[in-house]
Amino acid sequence: MNQAITVEIALPAPRPQRSGQTRPAKRPHPFVAAGGAGALKLVLALTLLLGLVACKQEQPVYNARFLAFGTLVDISLIRISRADAERVVAAIEQDFTAMDRAWHAWRPGPLGRVNRLLPSGDWFAAPPSVLPLVKLGQRYARQSDDLFDPAIGRLIALWGFHKDHPECRPPPPKEEIERLVRAHPRMSDIDVKGIMMRSRNPAVQLDFGAFAKGYGIDRAIDHLREMGVRNAIVNAGGDLRAIGSREGRPWRIAIRAPSGGSTLGFVEVSGDESVFTSGDYERNFIYRGQTYHHIIDPRTGYPARGFHSVTVIHTDGATADAAATALFVAGPKRWVEIARRMGVHEVLAVDYAGTLHMTPAMAKRVRLLEHNPDISLSEPL
Ligand code: AMP
Ligand code: MG
Questions:
Q1: pLDDT tens per residue, range 219-232
Q2: Mean pLDDT of 78-100
Q3: Quick one: which of 203, 250, 358, 377 could link to 185 by a disulfide (CB 3.0–4.6 Å)?
């Protein structure tokens, strides 16, 4: 969905040895059978052949790309044979297709079914694919004082932001926005008992657009690890989680400036970290000179007006994704308090005056390209 971050992956120099995560090279049978030559010749030839086999089988970086969650998903795997990489990527692509279908708010599927049942107020069995997101969504909503509120699906649909490509059209009528805000749909209106759920407020409609991608990337990383992958990036439209390293060196992630295609700075990422950005340039339309974007302030029903963009670094993608959206709504006045409650320590936000609001932990690691930018440092979180 967003393109705030691009990933630069420097290609490491090819090395003939295998890394632990790849399949062993096949033994070069025919050559050994052709024995009888001098020992040195045999060793030399064997070394050459092994080198060739390994080169054929392993790639410094294997990149693959497919569509999911209305965006391009890029997978980068380090030191893996083509055959293994293709198998791994096919499995991950299947995961993304299933998750996309399960969490789509308006197309037929598990979440669509939940949204049809919620207004009745009756208890129903929650689809297993949806239940964890309901619980997680409730936690983030509580932590953010409902600034992050996946229960405002009706408002998002009213604005037309439930579509991948919003149309250019007048904003919705003020009265309709106010009616939906007054109905006060909140995640806390949902009761969950075991696998059963219900809503005590008929206005609740779920839209997981603000954290499904992060949660999905987390599941993809879990699956990659189960398949033996230790060094990888899963990048969905610029939001990503990176594990391991590129042969001992950190991944270098570019953070895009909110006002255009330029780069704000870089962060180096290694071990296991997610970098997510919410921005007002991602999905929007212009009507009579005014830009309307897709992150809605549940208190007003209108697009939030605090920041241009918010970038969050955190271990898990779901938290980074949810926090970027929540802090975007919180704006310059409340972001520090909400970041603390959500347990995020590394934040970079750009306000409308161009000031960069940062936590000290973020300031320590980000390399900004702009000379002498206006920076407002928060207290340590
Ligand atoms: P993101 O790009 O991660 O910030 O997510 C934006 C998407 O989250 C929107 O397209 C909506 O589907 C949804 N959304 C918008 N406003 C909110 C909000 N205040 N709380 C939760 N989800 C929201
Ligand atoms: Mg988000």
A1: 999 999 999 999 99
A2: 96
A3: 203
End-of-domain residue from the set 169, 199, 229: 199
Which of 133, 140, 156 for a ligand 1 pocket mutation test, highest count of atoms within 8 Å of Cβ?
156
Instruction: Kindly report, residue by residue over 264-307, the tens digit of the pLDDT.
Output: 999 999 899 999 999 988 788 888 888 899 999 999 999 999 89
Last residue of a domain, one of 135, 167, 199: 199
CB 274 within 8 A of CB 313: yes
Residue pair 325/282 in contact by the 8 Å Cβ criterion: no
- Residue among 154, 325, 328, 334 whose CB has most ligand 1 atoms within 8 A, to mutate: 325
Give which of 40, 52, 95 is closest to 73, Cα–Cα: 95
Domain that holds residue 303: 60-101+214-377
CATH of the domain at 81: 3.10.520.10
pLDDT digits (tens, 9 = 90+) for 297-312: 999 999 999 899 999 9
Query: What pLDDT is stored for residue 69 in this prediction?
Result: 92
Please list, residue by residue across 60-81, b when 16 or more beta carbons sit within 10 angstroms of its beta carbon and e when fewer do. Answer: bbbebeeebbbbebbbbbbbbb
Is 353 exposed, middle or buried (CB count within 10 Å of its CB: 0-12, 13-18, 19+)? Answer: exposed
Whole-number Å distance, alpha carbon 182 to ligand 2 midpoint, is 24
Of the candidates 196, 197, 191, 219, the one whose C-alpha atom is nearest the C-alpha of residue 102 is: 219
- Residue 260: per-residue pLDDT: 58
Residues with CB under 6 A from ligand 1: 1-2, 148-150, 156, 161, 207, 209-210, 278, 282-283, 294-296, 298, 321, 324-325, 329
Same domain as 297, residue 156: no
Residue 2 clears pLDDT 80, i.e. is over it: no
